[in-house]
Design a protein that fits this description.
The complex is a heterodimer of chains A (about 120) and B (about 130).
Chain A: H1 5-26, H2 32-55, H3 63-88, H4 93-116
Helix pairs in contact in A: 1-2, 1-4, 2-3, 3-4
Chain B: H1 12-38, H2 43-63, H3 70-94, H4 115-129
The chains are: A mainly alpha (about 120), B mainly alpha (about 130).
């Protein structure tokens, strides 16, 4: 997909994961700043989903690849909310690391969206 | 001194459940797409993808302590996972023709950053670490 949006989203997801690594190392509990960061990523993912849905008619994408594209985009919407729900139920280093896993998975999803888009 | 089994979904286990959860989600979605769009092309590989997806879902639920006997479920799932990745990994290296389309366990999970090979060892180590002791 051309345009800066996927790249911005990818960098944001990786920065989020990197920030979480610092939190895990320092044993800091997630705060409102991280939640805001995640909300920004979530909003950008939603925009990406809408942009893809609007522009998908103009490109050559069919069958399995089409299902795959939107599968990844929907996964990108649920990863962080599920990650936060699972993480915030406990206060521990491991629970904070859950958010890092979610951030890395989010970055992977964006990379796959960029690859599947023709 | 005897000690009851520790929680498998607490501390480090919480992050482990998250990694297993990502694999469960990815493997299930991948398997559904394969079965829905091209089931006839490589039946063995796609059946294997479906089995792998079930194993990751079972491991996630077991380690997250969902269900009546989660520890037993987790042991069965990570045990099956270890046998699966070693068997399929070896078969795909020896005879690449056997699985024309890649599965999560092909080449010992090299396509997924070797995580499919590392995960069952971590899972077994974690279940052992949190076991009841006497």
């Amino acid at each position: 997909m051309d345009g800066p949006l996927p790249l911005v989203l990818l960098v944001a997801s990786l920065l989020f994961a990197a920030a979480l690594l610092v939190y895990v190392v320092l044993d800091r509990t997630p705060d409102w700043g991280l939640l805001g960061f995640a909300a920004l990523i979530e909003a950008l993912t939603l925009v990406l989903l809408v942009v893809a849905a609007v522009r998908v008619g103009d490109v050559d994408l069919s069958g399995g690849r089409l299902v795959t594209l939107f599968g990844y985009l929907v996964a990108g919407l649920v990863l962080l909310p599920i990650g936060f729900a699972w993480s915030l139920a406990e206060r521990s280093r491991g629970a904070t690391a859950v958010l890092m896993v979610a951030g890395l998975a989010q970055a992977f999803v964006v990379v796959r969206v960029m690859q599947v888009w023709p | 001194m005897s000690r009851a089994a520790a929680s498998t979904s607490s501390g480090l286990g919480r992050a482990l459940v998250a990694v297993y959860g990502v694999f469960a989600l990815a493997a299930t979605a991948r398997s559904l797409v394969q079965l829905a769009t091209k089931a006839g092309e490589a039946p063995l590989a796609y059946a294997l993808s479906a089995v792998a997806a079930l194993v990751y879902v079972a491991a996630t639920l077991g380690l997250a302590e969902v269900g009546p006997s989660p520890r037993r479920l987790a042991w069965a799932a990570v045990g099956f996972e270890l046998v699966g990745v070693l068997t399929v990994g070896t078969l795909t290296v020896v005879d690449p023709e056997l699985f024309p389309d890649a599965t999560v366990w092909s080449d010992y999970g090299a396509g997924y950053g070797w995580l499919p090979l590392v995960l069952p060892f971590v899972g077994i180590a974690w279940l052992w670490h949190t076991r009841a002791r006497d």
